[in-house]
Specification:
Strand order of the largest sheet: 2-8-7-6-5-3-4
Number of strands: 12
Number of domains: 2
Structural class: alpha/beta
Largest sheet: 7 strands, mixed
Shape: globular
Oligomer: single chain
Strand content: 15-25%
Number of helices: 14
């Protein structure tokens, strides 16, 4: 889908959300993206949300809590805040200016912010879901990027992650892990953090699978993080005081048990009714994802159908998905995330029935 149509999709979904809230209030919306986040600032915080006072106060707390969350150590590592994960990725690539970027993704494609950032600096970009192909491209001129969990929540194989990191270190290649949701998802599989595995840099999103605002938390080797943050400041990519405060409160309130409850619910949810529709779907660690609605249609036609179903889910049931509200270039698979706060207000049966009815409405099944 081109950028113009992506924007039309966004505008339509936002209009639908406004109309639902006007009629039913916020309770008429069920955000099942897993990215709803939150903004848990206190009254005390509000007095500190000033241009220079805010960063002075919250940068220290963000570093302290970020090191705990990303399992770094204060001797070697530092954590800073960016406006978004994509902002941190852009700042990193602008700073390092690699000749080439080699990106391993558990399942293609990658998040669009990475190849687009590479294009800005003129770096060659290679993207693989195969470890051997990835290793062939790594040398001292390479920035090695690893995605810990895909946009559809497929988690990286730990042995593959270790192999790529260790090989890249031998080749003197900087290792940067895009752990936007993976920093938390991988905990469910008892995987070490990116920094514990030896990555030089890691970024995570404080709204993904946790109750923080949409912000990018960048951690890694102090000298490298300082250089990246300086570049970020010069382009206005850094987190501003209100966002920093929200990120701090989100990190404070992170509860792994809540994620584990969603993990258990996802394992037990009955999706057998979906089999009758002859669609392609699979379970994820915290829910499920619908990838194709008609196995006989090509990718472009399937994408259009997925968007129509997502819009029907929003219009008829108030269910928000990444397919309807996600950024341009994001996956159009319909992902249902049961760790979302709003998922607690819906039964498994209500969610499944809403999806079935929306598919039948669009596909005439």
């Amino acid at each position: 889908m081109d950028d113009d149509n992506e924007l039309l999709r966004l505008e339509k979904s936002r209009k639908l959300i406004r109309e639902i809230i006007k009629k039913k209030g916020r309770n008429g919306i069920y955000d099942l993206t897993g990215l709803a986040g939150g903004f848990k600032i206190t009254e005390e915080d509000k007095a500190l949300l000033e241009t220079y006072v805010g960063p002075a106060v919250y940068s220290e707390e963000l570093n302290k809590l970020g090191l705990i969350h990303l399992r770094g150590n204060s001797k070697n590592h530092k954590v800073v805040g960016f406006n978004r994960t994509s902002s941190a990725i852009l700042a990193t690539i602008l700073t390092i200016k690699p000749k080439k970027v080699v990106h391993y993704v558990p399942e293609l494609p990658s998040h669009p912010s990475i190849p687009k950032s590479c294009k800005i600096v003129g770096a060659e970009y290679f993207e693989y879901d195969n470890v051997e192909e990835t290793l062939k491209k790594i040398d001292e001129y390479t920035l090695t990027i690893i995605t810990g969990a895909t946009m559809d929540h497929k988690v990286i194989n730990l042995d593959a992650m270790k192999e790529i990191i260790n090989y890249a270190k031998k080749k003197n290649s900087i290792v940067f892990v895009d752990d936007a949701s993976g920093a938390r998802l991988r905990l469910l599989f008892n995987q070490p953090s990116a920094l514990e595995l030896g990555a030089d840099l890691v970024v995570t999103s404080t709204d993904k699978l946790m109750d923080g605002p949409r912000g990018g938390l960048l951690g890694g080797l102090k000298e490298l993080v300082n250089k990246i943050y300086t570049v970020g400041l010069s382009f206005g990519l850094e987190a501003q005081p209100p966002l920093m405060a929200g990120m701090v409160r989100g990190l404070e309130s992170f509860n792994l048990q809540k994620l584990k409850r969603a993990f258990d619910r996802a394992k037990n949810i009955d999706l057998s009714k979906l089999d009758e529709l002859n669609i392609q779907y699979e379970k994820t660690p915290t829910g499920f994802v619908i990838k194709k609605l008609d196995k006989n249609k090509d990718a472009h036609e399937n994408e259009k159908d997925l968007i129509k179903v997502a819009m029907a889910l929003l219009e008829d049931y108030g269910i928000v998905t990444i397919t309807s509200v996600g950024m341009p270039g994001a996956s159009k698979s319909i992902r249902i995330d049961l760790c979302s706060k709003d998922a607690e207000r819906l039964s498994d049966e209500e969610i499944v029935n809403a999806i079935i009815n929306s598919i039948k409405k669009v596909m005439k099944k």
